[in-house]
Amino acid sequence: MIYLLAFISILLGAVAQYFLKMGMTNWALKGSVGEMLRLLFHNYYLWSGILCYGVSMLFWLYVLSRMELSKAYPMVSLGYVITLLIGYFLLNEPLSYPKVIGIVLIVAGVCFIARG
């Protein structure tokens, strides 16, 4: 169960990145601080990303209270894999062979650490 909660936390962090990317696409942060804040406060993608990060943190704190840090923290690297896949499938970002090899190495590393 704790591994599932860790995965949910990591997934929410990756989804937060997607929302933040969507929120900042075509947004130029120029002008006065007041103008930037006004624009940011009306950006629902940004608020969705912030909410995802907040919920992710709550799950992560629960995970840390019940799992060894040396096992929990390496699992965070799975967020790189999820974020790359979100970029590929939802943002039409390219997926190259070096990226695929990197994904395989990250997943293998997390599996080795989880078993140790």
From TrEMBL:
<dbReference type="Pfam" id="PF00892">
    <property type="entry name" value="EamA"/>
</dbReference>
<keyword id="KW-1003">Cell membrane</keyword>
<keyword id="KW-0472">Membrane</keyword>
<feature type="transmembrane region" description="Helical">
    <location>
        <begin position="72"/>
        <end position="91"/>
    </location>
</feature>
<dbReference type="GO" id="GO:0009245">
    <property type="term" value="P:lipid A biosynthetic process"/>
</dbReference>
<dbReference type="InterPro" id="IPR000390">
    <property type="entry name" value="Small_drug/metabolite_transptr"/>
</dbReference>
<keyword id="KW-1133">Transmembrane helix</keyword>
<keyword id="KW-0448">Lipopolysaccharide biosynthesis</keyword>
<protein>
    <submittedName>
        <fullName>Transporter</fullName>
    </submittedName>
</protein>
<feature type="domain" description="EamA">
    <location>
        <begin position="6"/>
        <end position="114"/>
    </location>
</feature>
<dbReference type="InterPro" id="IPR037185">
    <property type="entry name" value="EmrE-like"/>
</dbReference>
<keyword id="KW-0443">Lipid metabolism</keyword>
<feature type="transmembrane region" description="Helical">
    <location>
        <begin position="97"/>
        <end position="114"/>
    </location>
</feature>
<keyword id="KW-0444">Lipid biosynthesis</keyword>
<dbReference type="GO" id="GO:0022857">
    <property type="term" value="F:transmembrane transporter activity"/>
</dbReference>
<feature type="transmembrane region" description="Helical">
    <location>
        <begin position="44"/>
        <end position="65"/>
    </location>
</feature>
<dbReference type="InterPro" id="IPR000620">
    <property type="entry name" value="EamA_dom"/>
</dbReference>
<keyword id="KW-0441">Lipid A biosynthesis</keyword>
<keyword id="KW-0997">Cell inner membrane</keyword>
<keyword id="KW-0812">Transmembrane</keyword>
<dbReference type="GO" id="GO:0005886">
    <property type="term" value="C:plasma membrane"/>
</dbReference>
<dbReference type="GO" id="GO:0009103">
    <property type="term" value="P:lipopolysaccharide biosynthetic process"/>
</dbReference>
